[in-house]
Automatic annotation (TrEMBL):
Organism: Aquimarina amphilecti
Swiss-Prot/TrEMBL keywords: Signal
Protein name (database record): Gliding motility-associated C-terminal domain-containing protein
Signal peptide: 1-23
């Protein structure tokens, strides 16, 4: 809010009224009725719309008169005054932006503060001086900080705020710090502070003021940015119903006016649409802490209100909810969708507010955590079917469910938790009252799943479910009365019964049921152990001939019925003298083992022999058993009499015969009357394969009896051994192989028959056991095939020559990798296995030698041998170190041309008269190669032009000459290296051009760049001849000039011929000598082409008529240029340099006639640019210099020679732009110049 000053001081603070509640215009005008400075109170601060270039009614600048300090300009001023209440320093924040709340584009704002003053009427133009300036800022910032240090209570201060940006916006003026405060009594708060209204209730503004005779109400127009008068509203009060900024103007009888503003903002208040629900959670771990989604209540609280206009926040306390403003520092639950409670029954406060949080409502709800029960799984309940409902086969019985709750609860307290039972999972999850099952419940399906629900009595949503089954087990289905008949082994009518034989008679499901046997039916019903028959498989009937017992038949679920068993006994015997014996050899049938005493027996003829013991006409049933118990119990009878195996009794087994009367089951006989015997076979000893080496592919002669020892092994009994081509022949003892045997295939399998000669008669009797499963292979291994190798021929300088015998290895073996070779000098060495130890470097001491090579097959150890001949041929008498060939390089790159054939004369020693070896070039074929390996191979990669060969390796290279004898049988060629040497040309350079520097009269000064033309070569190694002209032509020689250097005396072209006195290689280099004249200082002057203070000071170097050279020019340390004119030359002393283009000489000219001013100075005590001033020269005379600030105030008169140190009346002036005026005389003409410069601290 802003308010104008009381009428009593209006005459002192007069400003032009602009429809804004800010004072603008003259500080000391005396026109009655104009606005003055507005009072300011830091308690309320102020935000007001600025004046700007878009508002034509605004004053664009402050009046002339006050000292505005750092404010070079004062666009769109706003004046305020304040009074100090509490003594101390005060800090204020002044900011400007396009939006009233400080957001939007930030705009540059400036200020100046004056004071202190004893009262608000003292400040006037004369008092607004630099001495009364407290603080000032002209920074290009949108936020400024103003400081009033050590303010005293009761003092007044005046503040000017300017809109440097000139853009529309709002200025915010607030106190932000300091121990001092302002006195708000200077404000007549007629309308009071701005108001935020929640709802639509009208607001009555009361601006009643004593002495007021006129009231005028206005509202701020956001479009035009001015206040519009509200028509007809002239009373002290005004009822506001819409949001807006309202202004009241009051006028007294003298015509004095004052205004006040207020911002009224109406907001739509939110409502608590619905009471939020308390939230509960089930605790799974017993710590009382769980995560809650508080936002479940958001839509409940909002109801139909727009969530983009209203927000719901959640808080820990009522105070936090009430004080929430939306700031980041406010206390708020930041993750309401996953909030973890900190205490039991925690109260949460919800706040619904508008986007600016001015209007709001709060309400609370509670978070409760309940213990979650554990549903222990009860046991299934199983019952046997019964006839209580009239039917013991329908699977329906009545169950007692009263104990299930105890199992589900376990150790949990029944006061805290309740257990209920339901027919479905859905019913259990719903827990609807009335759907529970009763304690006495008859199942409706079999089996039937029942669902148990246990829930917390305080919160039924905290529950768990489990399930179990009701199972009705069926009773067994039985035949109530059955009979067992038994044969006695004597005449007393008492026999042993296997009562379990009645099981299948009683029940068709006997295999899945449990049978027990009792003396009485009551005992069977009650499962009375005192009357139970324990040894039911060997039960003796208590009453001769006929007896009765009872069986209890139970299912695997314990459900039972009973049945009656009648026991009937009859008796007979088999004669003790009746015995049968069967003997067989061990076999491999079934178990693949012919050594375990188990074999197959055929005693199917025994039945006829047994039945023959009894009179004809009877129906007899004969069965056979391995033991008496089975025979009596009629269990495990031998079924296949033609293929019985004595597995339970190896080697010897005795069997029982049981004979039953087929008509009455009366026994005809029972006893051990059959003996089975198994005879052992000869041992199955392993026999190794019989291998022989042979040169005849796949054939050899074998003595098979050599294998007898392996066949018999350690056996001591008499055995007959024979050999056969096939297994069938061995089995049938046919096709015996006798004597030595030549194999018929390779390999060939031989089968062995070895037979026990039990009676030692030397004959293979049919009842003697034999083995025909032994076999072995005859294998004929082929000796390795070796190829007679070619002789190894070597050329050598001497008889003793080292040979690599392995060179013929692949030829001898034919490339076979399984043959290992050894080399021997004699057959005796072969016999004693004295092989040559290092065949790859064998020293042969004769010209011709034959060696024996033995090859062994690593796969079968067979071996063969061949001979290898060594032949040594001695070389012809060649020179293998010929003299190197030399030539001069042809291109100064280390390359030359050679006649390689010159080396052949040297190689054949034809150049040496002292050697007579009868060698002739016609006896040889000569080839030349660049690579040794090509020469060794004698391939087609020869040098194609040996008469004119150009080396491919610079300066030094080796080529290879291959000399092949043409004589038949002499393959001893030699490859001889020949060194090629390229001698370098004399290597030197001369300057392309030399300059002969001359005086104007032609006298030689010197030669440049060097005093002489120098080849820089050693005259002990090289010879020299200098010539006139670019070529070393005969007749152009310079007489006597045969040294490494030359001093020319005239301009022209010269060349020098240089010869290497060892290699005689020659080089010619040419050069040019030109003449030049250095500048003379008396031939040059410098003239100023422009006046003083010129933006483009220009000077020119003037060349005199006596100067005869070509010149270049440079200003100070700049670049050299061909033009003598220099522009943009700064003030002060300069140096101009002149030189001839050939560098023969250079002169320096000093000039100082450019007059200019420094653009800045830095009086900060560092010794650089400490003062500012202007100095004249011979052409310019300085008459006077005046210094001004940005407002035009004269700060300093420097006279004609003075300088300025940046102070005013002894006070340091701030960094800023300052202006000066200089009066001067140039070339006799009076002139004046104005400009600005910068003071930088």
């Amino acid at each position: 809010m802003s308010k104008s000053i009381p009428a009593s001081i209006l005459f002192l603070f007069f400003f032009i009224y602009t429809n804004f509640s800010i004072a603008q215009g003259s500080v000391c005008a005396d026109s009655v009725g104009d606005d003055g400075a507005d009072p300011f109170c830091s308690t309320t601060g102020i935000v007001f719309p600025n004046c700007n270039s878009s508002n034509s009614s605004c004053v664009s600048s402050s009046e002339i008169g006050p000292n505005y300090g750092c404010l070079t300009t004062q666009p769109f001023p706003a004046w305020y005054y304040l009074q100090i209440d509490d003594t101390g320093a005060l800090t204020f924040r002044i900011s400007q932006s396009t939006n009233e709340d400080g957001t939007g584009t930030q705009l540059d704002v400036d200020f100046i503060c004056y004071g202190p003053f004893p009262d608000p009427v003292s400040p006037c133009t004369a008092q607004l001086t630099a001495g009364n300036t407290v603080d000032c800022s002209y920074l290009p910032d949108a936020v400024e900080t103003m400081n009033i240090p050590a303010a005293t209570a009761g003092d007044f201060y005046l503040v000017l705020i300017t809109n440097f940006s000139e853009q529309p916006g709002f200025i915010n003026f607030q106190q932000t710090g300091g121990t001092g405060s302002t006195d708000c009594s200077i404000l007549e708060a007629t309308l009071g502070p701005n108001q935020d209204i929640c709802g639509s209730d009208p607001v009555v503004l009361d601006g009643t003021s004593d002495g007021a005779i006129r009231y005028e109400w206005s509202v701020f127009n956001e479009t035009t940015m001015v206040f519009d008068i509200i028509s007809g509203e002239t009373s002290p009060t005004y009822t506001v119903t819409t949001t807006g900024r309202y202004q009241l103007l009051i006028e007294d009888i003298d015509g004095n006016t004052e205004t006040d503003e207020i911002l009224i903002t109406f907001y739509t208040p939110p409502i608590i649409a619905n009471t939020p629900m308390d939230l509960s959670a089930c605790d799974d771990d017993g710590n009382g802490i769980e995560a809650f989604d508080l936002t479940q209540n958001t839509s409940i609280i909002l109801g139909a209100q727009d969530p983009t206009e209203f927000t719901v926040t959640y808080h820990f306390t009522q105070e936090d909810a009430e004080n929430y403003t939306g700031a980041a520092s406010d206390n708020i639950i930041i993750d309401p969708d996953n909030f973890v409670n900190t205490v039991a029954d925690q109260v949460i406060w919800a706040r619904i507010g508008g986007t600016n949080q001015i209007c709001f409502e709060i309400i609370s709800f509670v978070l409760r955590v309940y213990e979650n029960p554990v549903a222990n799984v009860p046991m299934n309940i199983e019952l046997c079917d019964n006839a209580l409902d009239g039917d013991d086969t329908n699977g329906v019985v009545e169950f007692d469910l009263s104990n299930v709750a105890v199992e589900v609860l376990g150790t949990q307290n029944s006061v805290d938790f309740v257990v209920s039972l339901y027919e479905s999972q859905a019913d259990a999850d719903a827990g609807v009252l009335g759907t529970e099952l009763p304690n006495n419940y008859s199942n409706i399906t079999n089996p039937q799943t029942v669902y148990a629900r246990i829930h917390n009595t305080s919160e039924q949503s905290c529950f768990e479910t489990t399930s179990f089954q009701l199972i009705v087990n069926p009773l067994p289905v039985v035949t109530p009365i059955v009979s067992l008949l038994q044969c006695d082994d004597d005449t007393d009518g008492i026999s042993l019964f296997n009562l379990s034989e009645a099981n299948t008679l009683i029940s068709s499901n006997a295999v899945n049921e449990f049978f027990s046997y009792y003396l009485t039916e009551i005992a069977a019903i009650n499962a009375d152990p005192a009357n139970q028959i324990v040894n039911f498989t060997a039960y003796s009937n208590p009453i001769p001939i006929n007896s009765t017992v009872f069986s209890r038949i139970e299912t695997d679920k314990g459900c039972f019925r009973t049945a009656q068993i009648d026991l009937v006994v009859s008796a007979t015997q088999i004669p003790a003298s009746f015995n049968l014996t069967y003997r067989v050899c061990d076999d491999v049938n079934m178990d693949n083992d012919d050594t375990n005493g188990i074999a197959s027996f055929d005693f199917s003829d025994a039945t006829n022999q047994v039945t023959a013991l009894y009179p004809a006409g009877q129906v007899l049933i004969v069965t056979y058993y391995e033991n008496l118990a089975d025979a009596l119990a009629e269990e495990n009878a031998i079924i296949d009499l033609s293929n019985h195996r004595n597995e339970v009794s190896p080697f010897v087994q005795n069997l029982y015969i049981r004979v039953d009367d087929g008509s009455s089951n009366g026994c005809l006989g029972l006893g051990q009357h059959i003996r089975l015997e198994v005879a052992a076979l000869p041992e199955n000893n392993p026999v190794t394969d019989f291998r022989l080496c042979s040169d005849d592919p796949g054939r050899a002669t074998f003595d098979l009896t050599e294998k007898n020892a392996e066949v018999i092994g350690s056996q001591t009994g008499t055995l007959l051994v024979s050999y056969h081509r096939t297994e069938i022949e061995a089995v049938n003892n046919t096709g015996q192989i006798t004597g030595v045997f030549t194999n018929e295939s390779n390999p060939q399998t031989i089968w062995v028959r070895v037979q026990s000669d039990d009676n030692n008669n030397g004959t293979a009797d049919v009842d003697e056991c034999f083995r025909s499963t032994i076999s072995f292979d005859l294998q004929v291994l082929h000796n390795p095939e070796l190829i007679n190798p070619d002789p190894i021929n070597l050329c050598s300088d001497q008889v003793n020559t080292v040979y690599n015998l392995t060179l013929r290895e692949d030829q001898i073996t034919g490339g076979a990798t399984n043959i290992v070779l050894a080399y021997y000098e004699s057959q005796n060495d072969v016999d004693t296995d004295n092989a040559i130890p290092n065949p790859a470097s064998y020293m042969n001491t004769t010209l011709i030698r034959e060696l024996i090579v033995v090859g062994r097959d690593t796969d079968n150890s067979c071996f063969s041998s061949v001979t290898l001949q060594l032949r040594t041929t001695l070389y012809d008498d060649f020179n293998i170190s010929p003299t190197a060939l030399e030539t001069c390089e042809s291109d100064q790159e280390g390359v030359g041309v050679f006649d390689l054939t010159l080396a052949v004369q040297d190689i054949l020693n034809l150049n040496d008269a002292d050697i007579s070896n009868d060698l002739s070039i016609s006896d040889y074929n000569i080839d030349y190669y660049e690579l040794m390996q090509d020469a060794e191979l004698g391939n087609a990669n020869t040098i194609s032009s040996p008469l004119a060969y150009q080396n491919v390796q610079i300066f030094n290279q080796v080529v290879y000459v291959r000399v092949d004898p043409l004589a038949m049988g002499n393959d001893c060629f030699r490859v001889i290296p020949v060194q090629l040497i390229v001698n370098a040309l004399p290597d030197f350079t001369l300057e392309e051009e030399y300059v002969l520097c001359l005086e104007n009269d032609g006298v030689i000064i010197n030669l440049i760049p060097t005093d002489v033309i120098d080849t820089s070569l050693d005259d002990t190694i090289y010879d020299f001849q200098w010539y006139v002209g670019v070529t070393a032509t005969t007749g152009n020689e310079i007489p006597g000039e045969i040294g490494a250097i030359y001093s020319p005396t005239t301009a022209g072209q010269y060349s020098v011929l240089v010869t290497n006195n060892r290699t005689m290689c020659v080089s010619v280099v040419e050069t040019t000598v030109v003449e030049s004249y250095p500048p003379q200082i008396e031939d040059f002057t410098v003239e100023l082409l422009s006046g003083a203070f010129s933006d483009n000071a220009t000077i020119e170097v003037m060349v005199g008529s006596d100067a005869i050279g070509e010149y270049e020019y440079r200003l100070d340390s700049g670049d050299w240029q061909s033009s003598p004119i220099f522009t943009r030359v700064s003030r002060g002393e300069h140096f101009v340099y002149v030189r001839d283009v050939f560098m023969c000489g250079e002169i320096e000219l000093s000039v100082e006639f450019v007059v200019d001013y420094p653009r800045y100075f830095t009086p900060n005590g560092d010794g650089f640019h400490e003062s500012w001033g202007i100095v004249g020269n011979d052409n310019v005379q300085i008459n006077g210099i005046l210094i001004f600030n940005r407002s035009g105030k004269l700060l300093k008169d420097l006279g004609s020679l003075g300088t300025w140190d940046g102070t005013y009346n002894g006070n340091l002036l701030p960094s800023s732009e300052y202006w000066f005026k200089v009066r001067y005389t140039e070339n006799g003409i009076m002139k004046e110049f104005n400009a600005s410069f910068s003071l930088i601290r």
